[in-house]
Amino acid sequence: MPKEVVRLGVVGSSYPPTNRWAARVLRPVAAMADLPQIAQGTPMSERDGIETVYMGDHALVLHSNETGHYIDNLQARQPSIWVAVDDGVVRVITVDPYEGEALASDPERIVEAVPLPPQLAARMEAFITAHHVEQVFHKRKRVPATSAEDPRAPRILQADEKWVNTRGRSGRGPGGRG
After folding, report:
1. What CA–CA distance (Å, rounded) separates 96 from 77?
2. 3-class DSSP state of 123
3. What's the distance, CA 152 to chain centroid?
4. Smallest Cα–Cα separation from 103: which of 94, 4, 74?
5. Where are the domains of the chain?
6. For the chain, what percent of residues have pLDDT higher than 70?
7. Which residue among 49, 57, 99, 121 is the one 20 to 30 A from 73 at the CA level?
8. Measured at the alpha carbon of residue 84, what is the angle toward residues 81 and 88, in degrees to the nearest 5?
């Protein structure tokens, strides 16, 4: 299965706490296709208590079997990259909207959809052109449960097919009681 790995830089913003019991939380706000030459965790700017921090460069893996999902993302009103953060550290980045939605189901994880850089959108389109195979939908034809083509047992047993106990009497339970 063909895949392509793309390195992206992630930028986060940290806002001052709203009360004395809260802590600063670092949330992803942007992704960069061009990687800066700075270390992870380096503050990029600070204004009115809001810090912008470089969260490092991370691998985004494009898989050929997910090209349909990438098409859905590129056709969306706002194509996005989903960035999942645990304890202030980026764990996963994806351009698959359905994987992004699944990541967001964890209440302990911060997941943000950030705008997709145009350079990455162009790479995704090239990857889709090279590897996309249209999946044809085949509606399954329903087969009645009692048909001759169905190898399963019929739902209602005939009188001679019912369970017979060791005394030779038919019944529902041991000893023919029931």
Report:
1. 15
2. helix
3. 36
4. 94
5. 3-131
6. 82
7. 57
8. 130
Q: Within its chain, how far is the Cα of 12 from the centroid?
A: 22
Q: Rg (Cα) of the chain, in Å, rounded? A: 28
Q: How far is CA 71 from CA 16, 116, 134, 145, in A?
A: 38, 13, 11, 39
> Bridge-partner residues for 112, per DSSP?
83
Question: Once rounded to an integer, what is the mean pLDDT over residues 34-56?
Answer: 92
* Inter-residue contact 20 to 63 (CB < 8 Å): no
What is residue 87's three-state secondary structure? coil
* pTM exceeds 0.85, yes or no: no
Question: pLDDT of 110-127, one tens digit each?
Answer: 999 999 999 999 999 999
Q: At what angle do helices 118-131 and 67-74 cross, to 10 degrees?
A: 140
Q: Write down the number of H helices and E strands in the chain.
A: 3, 7
Within 8 A by CB and 6+ apart from 12, the residues are: 26, 27, 28, 29, 52, 53, 54, 55, 85
Contacts of 31 (CB under 8 A, 6+ apart): 8, 9, 10, 11, 81, 83, 93, 114, 115, 116, 117, 120
User: Amino acid letter at 113?
Assistant: A
Residue 166, both tokens: 């060791």
